[in-house]
Amino acid sequence: MKIKRVTLFAALLLVFILNGSAQESFVDYLTTEEFKSVVFNYDKNPREWTYEGSLPCIIDFYTTWCGPCKRLSPIMDELSVKYKGKVRFYKVDIEKERELANLFGIQSIPTLLFCPQADKPQIARGLLPKETLESAIGSVLLK
Description:
The protein has helices at about 1-20, 30-40, 65-80, 100-105, 130-140; strands at about 25-30, 55-60, 90-95, 110-115, 120-125. By secondary structure, the protein is an alpha/beta fold. It has one domain (about 25-140): Glutaredoxin. A five-stranded mixed beta sheet has the order 1-3-2-4-5. Strand 4 and strand 5 form a beta hairpin. The longest helix is centred in the first third of the chain and has 20 residues, at about 1-20. Residues about 10-20 have low confidence and may be disordered.
């Protein structure tokens, strides 16, 4: 009888943990080749920025060991849900995608690249508060 209670308790605890930690997210991780197809193909058009996406986007240049990057991640997840269908959210690991890091001169992380559909991209460096990100989304991407 005691084993059944412990097993039931463990099962309920596991369900609670899994439901509590399963946050919905629409953030996509990009390789260099994917970046070229959905953001900017700099091989095809090296001198002029031409955005390839159907929606404006935010790209988070990060590394897995970066503390501020880890704190930004749940904010990006939350905003990706809020702005689903209006703004795309991407992440680029600069240790794996060094070509992209060099292309944009990424020297500090996190670095965010805001890409409107019909304008030049804008860069923001450092961990930005959620409110600042939402303001930038409104003024740069959804204007």
